[in-house]
Amino acid sequence: MKYQQFIIEKFGFLGNDFLEEIQKHSSQVKIKGKTEILAEGNKIKNIPFVVSGSLKVYALNDGRELIYNYIRPGETCLMSFSTIFNDFVSRVYVVSEEDTEALVIPATVLLDWLIKYPQINKLFYYEFDLRFTDIMNMVNDAVFHKLDKRIMNYIKQQITLTGQNPIKLTHKEIAHNLGTSREVVSRLLKKVENEGEIIQTKEGIKILVNEDVRI
User: Which end of the chain is more exposed for a tag (fewer CB within 10 A), N or C?
Assistant: First the structure.
């Protein structure tokens, strides 16, 4: 029932003929949290549309992660989507941040649909707009914000994604995702904790709720 509702809400504008085709060709998958589902250089066979949970899209540089974006419910991976116009080879890594359910469509089928149902390009441009905004926010964060602000923005992003506050995040994990060291993260988190912005307990990092955190 959940998947049926998702299909109608996401693809209903393409008409009944398309809905029949997507019922025929799509599959439903459940992915455990922290599972790598795609690596750089992999041949892309399926395009995922997230129904619940979230996926992290990132690249690796000298063993450090550069996060491009998170795929939330109702969204798909633009980097995977875009390969169907070229070579079907992934240029990114995709990992499930939490237990995730997704609707997957074979990439070759989706390519055929782009010809048969040209309105499906609306999905591509919608995803492009979302990802462009994500990248602009990432660039602004890196250029204009100090590391303590970037750390806080990252924690708030994870709270928004998961709906959990406090949230279980290790200092090492934060450092890995922001390209810094665990020692630096620990020092800056202690600083913002002393300033009264967060509380660190065995349950995780708790941000005092304000207008910047939506949970």
Answer: N
The torsion region of residue 53 among left (phi > 0), alpha (psi -120 to 50) and beta comes to: left
User: H or E segment at 47?
Assistant: strand 46-52
Q: How far apart are CA 150 and CA 142, in angstroms?
A: 7
Strand bridging mode 55-61 / 64-71: antiparallel
Q: What is the mean pLDDT of the chain?
A: 88
Q: pTM (2 decimals)?
A: 0.72
Backbone dihedral angles phi then psi of residue 94, each to the nearest 5 degrees: -130, 125
Query: Which residues lie closer than 8 Å to 35 by C-beta, 6 or more apart?
Result: 95, 96
Of residues 178 and 190, which shows the higher confidence score?
Answer: 190
Choose among 104, 109, 106, 80: nearest CA to 28.
Answer: 104
Burial class (CB in 10 A: 0-12, 13-18, 19+), 77: buried
| Lookup result for tokens 């904790």 | 193
Q: Which DSSP letter does residue 119 get?
A: G
From CA 19, how far away is CA 16, in angstroms rounded?
Answer: 5
CB 150 within 8 A of CB 141: yes
Q: Where does the pLDDT of residue 210 fall: very low under 50, low under 70, confident under 90, or very high at 90 and above?
A: low
What is d(CA 215, CA 213) in angstroms, rounded to the nearest whole number? 6
DSSP letter at 13?
A: G
Cα–Cα distance for residue pair 182/16, rounded to 1 Å: 52
